[in-house]
Amino acid sequence: MGDCLRRDGNMPLTKALTSEELERRLHTIGAERYHDKHPFHQKLHGGALNQGQVQAWVLNRFCYQNAIPRKDAALMSQITDVDLRREWRGRIEDHDGNRSGEGGLERWLVLAEGVGLDRNYVSSTDGALPATKFAVEAYVRFVRERPLLEAIASSLTELFAPNIHRQRIAGLLEHYAFANDDTLSYFRKRLEEAPKDVEFGLDYVLRHAREPSQQQGVIDALVFKTGVLWAQLDALYHAYVEPGHIPPGAFVPDKE
Q1: Of 81-85, 105-109, 195-199, 242-246, which gets the smallest average pLDDT?
Q2: Residue 5 above 80 pLDDT?
Q3: Which of 66, 102, 168, 223 has the lowest tally of Cβ within 10 angstroms?
């Protein structure tokens, strides 16, 4: 029996790609699937969302941000090489900080307060959408259960993150009164942190994914991760934009 089409419509790899070919394939995934193309982000960056919709995005995105250090800790549990473990540990420090009041999560809570949310409520993640929580936990579980190479490859959405951060900074500053140097500090800091992270992660993947099965696993991992990000925005759009079906227990914006 011949090779079957995969669910994404592509044939599975039957021979190894060169490093250059694999890198191009990864960039193609970003060009086609990264969540900067989602209608919710287009509305956000274009100033078309009201305060409650922006609050919903900030609150739900914190649920994802808060899971990143857990994801990285799960990934590190697979690493036996001390140098690699030391390198990856910096990602947890970037988000958690080394002491209270520091790190990416703290900067995100400053944004939450800037859009009018209570930081304790946001930190609890109680108001996050069920679909957000499912998507986030699926990501943590993927990294915990899949081979290390695929777990690292799933982080390569960072390849595409600097562009969306620049779009976001410009769009929020242009359209929303809450936007300033303090509230947008998370995104500005990630413009410094993400290139370092992605350079290391991409180099690791290209050096270690040599066999077709390994390369296919890397490709699938990145496709999976773009789906995790896209699913979160689908949930936000359905609940807070159109048709506006907020599930029980989720955050309900004040009526404007």
Answers
A1: 195-199
A2: no
A3: 102
φ and ψ at 217, to 5 degrees? -60, -40
Return the CATH number of 19-241, one of 2.130.10.10, 3.40.50.720, 1.20.910.10, 2.20.28.10.
1.20.910.10
- Contacts of residue 146, defined as CB under 8 A and 6 or more positions apart, other chains included, come to 154, 217, 221
Q: Could you read off the pLDDT of 214-251 as tens digits, one per residue? A: 999 999 999 999 999 999 999 999 999 999 999 999 99
| Percent of the chain at pLDDT exceeding 70 | 96
- For residue range 153-171, what is the model confidence (pLDDT) as tens digits? 999 999 999 889 999 999 9
- What whole-number distance in Å separates Cα of residue 37 and Cα of residue 41? 7
Consecutive H or E run containing 227 = helix 212-236
Closest CA to 141 of 47, 70, 240: 70
Segment holding 226, helix H or strand E: helix 212-236
Distances (CA, A) of 204 to 82, 192, 207, 223: 15, 20, 5, 18
Across 196-208, b (16+ Cβ under 10 Å) vs e yields ebbebbbebbbee
The structural domains of the chain, with segments of one domain joined by +, span: 19-241
| Of 11-20, 166-175, 190-199, highest mean pLDDT | 166-175
116: left (phi over 0), alpha (psi -120 to 50) or beta: left
Could you tell me if 76 and 89 are in contact, meaning their C-beta atoms sit under 8 angstroms apart? Answer: yes
Quote the tokens at residue 126: 């109680």
DSSP secondary structure letters along 162-217: HHHHHHHHHHHHHH-TT-STTTTHHHHHHHHHHHHHHHHHHHHHHHH--SHHHHHH
